[in-house]
Write the structure tokens for this entry.
Amino acid sequence: MNTQEELSVQILQGATSEAETHVFIKVDSSIRAEDVSVEGPFSQRAETLSSKFQFVDVPQNSGSNLKLLKTEIIDPLFWTTRNPALYRCSIQAESLKPPFICEFGIRDLHTKGRDLIAEDRRWVLRAGVADASTAVESIEPWRNESMAMLVSNPSDELCLQATLQGLFLIVEMTSYEGDFQNELERLVKYSAVAAVLLLPSVEFKESPGQFAPHLLLGCLLRPGESAEPADIPKWAKFVVHELFGDELDIQPSLDVPEMIWQNYDEPAFSDPRLARAACDELQREIKGTGEFAGIWVGHE
């Protein structure tokens, strides 16, 4: 008999459209497809009409201790900061006590050419480095300022609360020294994690789309580093140019979304109103230098 702690479960978002979303689950081979279902959507911020969807087996090569199951969610309600809708996955099997239950959201944020697209329209991602000591308690104020939190090594509690309350997180991993795949598999579980920032030197054994689908990965370019297309890794869906001081002489030139991050010497922001004001000021200063898909401020 398995317990929740012993059960290995990975939920992956597949092909997505406004009409339907494919959802896959990797689970212990002892679990039957008829034991697994998804119900939703549910939201803390809006009334929703929920439906239930059953899984079916996906044929695959034998020899694995995990099996792959699939369902199709019809007319999906995407997770957004305005309405952080979630779906509930339930596994109820005789061999599992108590039943396994977890919630997940369906990501809608994606790129199109040089733009970020959210809720079918171009979106500028404004973010500030948040004070880690007060991050969980200050989710609502950051959300009220239409700001994303830029954080390093976020706790599961921060990721969960941001997902439930509707706040985008950007995870900065340029100093990370652990297993990148394991960390991305952890972060992709939380719909609030909009993007992850890595150094361009990071390499993966397999495409991140296989284990962290629909999670936007971007690479950080330090001052003076080449922004030629050949120097941008294939996994990078966007590029962030790091700026120091008053260095604003930069023009977007790539075929992917480009963002700027003005790295101040001051500590991280504890007040999101100050972070929003800094973003707005930076946007005024760069006006006329090109269209950037994101404006970030704060000290890493």
In short: The two ends are 46 Å apart (CA to CA). The helical segments are 139-144, 156-165, 180-187, 208-211, 272-286.
